[in-house]
Protein 1
Amino acid sequence: MNTNAQEKRRVLLPALGAATVIAAFLAAGLLLLAPAYRDIAAGLLSAALASFVFALMVLLVFRRRNVLTGIVKFCLIFAFNLALFTVAGIWWFGPVAIFHPNADAASEAALASMPQVERIEEDGGRLSGWRFRCGESGAPVILYFYGNGETGSAKLRALCESVRAGYFAGFDLAVFDYPGYGGAPGRPTEATVKETALAAYDYLRRTDDVIGVCGYSIGTGPANYVAANRETAALALIAPYVDGYDLYNNFLPVFRSPLLRGLVTFKMESCVFAKSVKVTPLVIASADDRTVPLASSESLASSYHNATLQRLDGRSHAGLPADPVCLGMVSDYFREAFS
């Protein structure tokens, strides 16, 4: 092979390899995080395949001898680059796949029109939330941590509907947005969500003596964290997970080895927090939950010194928090805990 051909191969192959990996990586990211852009993802996958085939053609044209050796080398380089990009992707995009920051202007407008609801903004807007006041002086307050696809305004609006339906009578309700959600600035990570959760409790503690904590789905992590680090009167958990590793494994069951566990950036080890929780939590889970498996909730329940596990089979993950039986269980639990 002449020198000119060698130089072309040295330049083309790495470039094509990088283009292939990047296109495949972007396509996978789009399919995972933005299914609505599946057409673009399909185009990127096609581009990745075309790049890979073209790279093999380059090998055949510029290196007629030892073609098999060249193909093997290229495939090894491609595999290494793909692994490198995959590791970086899991590390960076993991929290992105877990959290889905959004806002709900309609719910904000609805809450603004309710005389019993007050807007909360502290620390230059970093702490952003809503509070429903039942009208009774000294009423206990329930601090609620919502799921990853909700917002503080939408959740409190739904809770107000529950109050009108007869649940949570005599209780104040407070919901604060995670960073990046609603009107709160920042980006949701394990550290920022924990910080916001404690700040929300501390804000309420200035004026309220009796605070119960409730969490649903991703919100059960910060709810557990608050109960482990602050004095709470009660802790109710709907579809809770044992830790962040379980969430990752439920999506892709490869994060059990110590090496791959190191790639999990959202650890949220509720099973560890559970050891410091002094109250008896209420844990509600369903065997038909496809997002947080029943086994994960059961494992968390066994981590407390004492916990009450209630199964509501037949309910989906999204259906649990609005289910009348679930609402009744949570309302009755807080009523007994606050009495």
Note: The longest helix spans residues 67-98.
Protein 2
Amino acid sequence: MKASRFLRLYEQGIRKFHGINLQGAQLYRSVLVALDLEGANLIGVDLNGSFLTKSNFSHAQLNWSNFTHGKLSESIFDGADLTKANFYGAFMVRSQLVKTQLSGANLNHTNLRHADLAQVNLCGACLYRVNLRDSSLRDSNLNWSNFQESRLSGADMRKCSAYKTNFARSFMKGVDLRNSDLSESNLHGARLSNANLANANLRGANLREARLRGANLEGADLRGANLQQADLEMANLDGAVFDRTNLTKANLMGANLAHTNLHNSCLTETIFPETVNRMITAQNNNSLNQKDYYGYGFQLGRVIN
């Protein structure tokens, strides 16, 4: 259907256009509120700057579509194919994007606060300075995507796959990342205070200068991770796995280190609770025996000072 005819039908009060073919249509700066385009072919459509509040795009084909600076609050994209779509600067508060394909999409500066992106595929997507506060990304594929300086505070990111994902300098206070795969991800300078990272895979992750005060890292895998100058004050590290972990100048004051083993970890200038400092001194003086390990509830193993 030609774009001109489609717009005339909309002006006549028609809102339901299931399965319509508008491939490549130029609809920029249009006002199309409460539009229903379920299952439509919208490949390459240009909706730059358009008002599309409360519209339905579920299961639509939207590859290479342009929603730059669009107004899309409370819109529905469930099951849609948005591969390589452009949402730069779009306003998408409380939108639904469950099980959408967003690989390679541009979501830089997009506002997705309180949005539902459960089981979404964001592999290789650009989300620089995106706002995802209090949103859901549960069970999503975030591999190789860029969340640098994004706002993720309060987000539900349980069971996410975020291999080699960039979260550098992101705001992630209180984020829920339980059972997520963050191996080799970049969390340099990320603000993760009170975050829940229980049983997360952080092998080889870069957490240099990360703020993890009060965070829950119970059972987390931190083998080979870089925690240099990280703030882990009052963090829960019960049962966390350390091996070849860099804790140089990290702050562990008040941290719970029960059932941990700091085997082969670098502890140069690491700030420990006083009881742990005494234990390290005793080990260095060869005056620590096996029963002392049980008294402190964790093991040092062989450490690098």
Note: The first strand starts at residue 241 and ends at 243.
